[in-house]
Amino acid sequence: MKMSWRLASRLSVLVLALLVVIVVAVIGSRGDTITSNASGTTPSGLQGTNLGGTPAPDFRLTDQFGKQISLSQFRGEPVVLTFLYTHCPDVCPLTAEKLHATLNALGSQAQHVTILAVSVDPKGDTRTSVINFSNVHHMLNSWHYLTGTEQQLSPVWSAYSMYASVASANTVDHSTGLYVIDKQGKEQVFLSDTFAPSQLETDLKILLK
């Protein structure tokens, strides 16, 4: 009886330990799920804030080569839409570099992706400054940097909930981030300016399929 009691006691301890392990595993699993959802991954695997496939508002502006460009003309391929200005001291140059890194990572697939950068500085973003900025960040022939008057640009800012206001002679306070739009012209996800090139690369590869 003494040995049986010891055996039973040990078994009860083992069962309790097993239950603890199971509970911890379940909690950990839920935690992983919450973390995954909090990071903004959509059911289709896209990373970013889910925009639910809302049709992207169309617009027409002029690029760095003086060519008229509209969003709708790129139906059939994914579009990355961002808002920048050439005299920006921090976020904009970094965004341009990350876009360049994303295109490099995509390799031959990059030719099937369109990147549109809409100016938030109507006066400062001259054709010369845009070409210089594009050259510095190796994007001259890899995107359409779109400019216009304030009257032409402000409706686009509003349509995409972007804020832009001149703070000083060479500084503009503006919203940051980028929209990832699918082949059908629908907004899929929004990425903040802290996005990693690998995140955008993953999203574009999913939309290219």
How would you characterize this protein structure?
The protein has about 210 residues and is of the alpha+beta class. The chain has helices at about 1-40, 90-105, 125-135, 150-160, 195-209, and strands spanning about 50-55, 60, 70, 80-85, 115-120, 145, 165, 170-175, 180, 185-190. It has two domains: about 1-40; about 50-209, Glutaredoxin.
Mean pLDDT: 85
Reported for the largest beta sheet, the result is:
6 strands, mixed
Whole-number total of structural domains: 2
- Strand line-up of the largest beta sheet: 1-10-9-4-5-6
Give me some keywords for this one.
single chain, 209 residues, alpha+beta, Glutaredoxin, 2 domains, 6-stranded mixed beta sheet, two-stranded antiparallel sheet, 21% strand, disordered N terminus
Secondary structure blueprint with pairings:
Elements: H1 2-38, E1 49-55, E2 60-62, E3 68-70, E4 79-84, H2 91-106, E5 114-119, H3 127-136, E6 144-146, H4 150-159, E7 164-166, E8 172-174, E9 178-181, E10 186-191, H5 197-208
Parallel strand pairs: 4-5, 5-6
Antiparallel strand pairs: 1-10, 2-3, 4-9, 7-8, 9-10
